[in-house]
Task: inverse folding
């Protein structure tokens, strides 16, 4: 009972700021302090959503963007986990890879767009690759740092029980580093949503990034706000799913 009460309280507190922002938004637009062409009212954004939904466009935008993010996230996180483990466990790998990856990490997302178009042409491959690049670095950084700081005594205890190599990594080192790994996955997923908008600038005709760009060109501020709200909601939903998986994994270990 106490746990349920605490959950309700957390949800209520979490909704407090969004509800307050919505109320301020409505009050500002109702007062006429800001012109409607600059800041449409919440009901105008809602009408834009229902219009796109009834025409069958909104579901397509949501589905294709979610698909791109999830595929790019899985690919980037998998490579980030592998490279992060190599760098975190091997001093030689760290000396070879860490300086170069540190430099590449500083490259802005939009700087990759022309190169990916030249290499992978205009299509899903270039978009998913850009999202995967965004998801790679948070996982790589957190995993390598977490494995590098695993207690050496735990590692020695695992070796004393005959664990080595992949078995040692899976049964001793990764479980100890699990909170940091999950934190990296959550950051990677957030980064994947950030890179999505840049990815969908690559001659896209579907997706929330396309909806943002197309609405800006046509002066549809209501649709721009709708796309921003949807990106925020999808990002929060996927982050909550990883948080749920984190609690289950931590309970298991």
Result:
């Amino acid at each position: 009972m106490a746990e349920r009460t605490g959950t309700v309280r957390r949800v209520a507190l979490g909704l407090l700021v969004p509800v307050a922002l919505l109320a301020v938004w409505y009050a500002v637009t109702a007062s006429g302090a800001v012109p409607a062409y600059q800041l449409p009212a919440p009901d105008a954004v809602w009408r834009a959503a229902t219009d796109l939904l009834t025409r069958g466009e909104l579901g397509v935008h949501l589905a294709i963007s979610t698909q791109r993010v999830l595929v790019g996230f899985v690919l980037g996180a998998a490579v980030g986990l592998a490279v992060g483990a190599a760098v975190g466990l091997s001093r030689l790998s760290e000396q070879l890879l860490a300086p170069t990856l540190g430099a590449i990490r500083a490259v802005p997302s939009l700087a990759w767009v022309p190169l990916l178009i030249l290499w992978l042409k205009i299509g899903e491959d270039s978009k998913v690759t850009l999202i995967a690049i965004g998801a790679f670095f948070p996982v790589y950084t957190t995993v390598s740092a977490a494995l590098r700081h695993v207690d050496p005594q735990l590692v020695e205890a695992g070796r004393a029980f005959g664990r080595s190599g992949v078995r040692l990594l899976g049964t001793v080192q990764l479980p100890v580093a699990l909170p940091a790994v999950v934190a990296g996955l959550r950051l990677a997923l957030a980064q994947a949503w950030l890179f999505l908008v840049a990815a969908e600038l690559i001659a896209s005709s579907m997706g929330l990034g396309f909806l943002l760009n197309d609405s800006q060109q046509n002066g549809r501020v209501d649709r721009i706000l709708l796309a921003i709200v949807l990106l925020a909601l999808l990002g929060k939903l996927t982050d909550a799913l990883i948080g749920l998986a984190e609690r289950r994994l931590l309970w298991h270990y």
Observations:
- The longest helix spans residues 165-199.
- The mean pLDDT is 88.
- The chain has two domains: 1-34, 39-252.
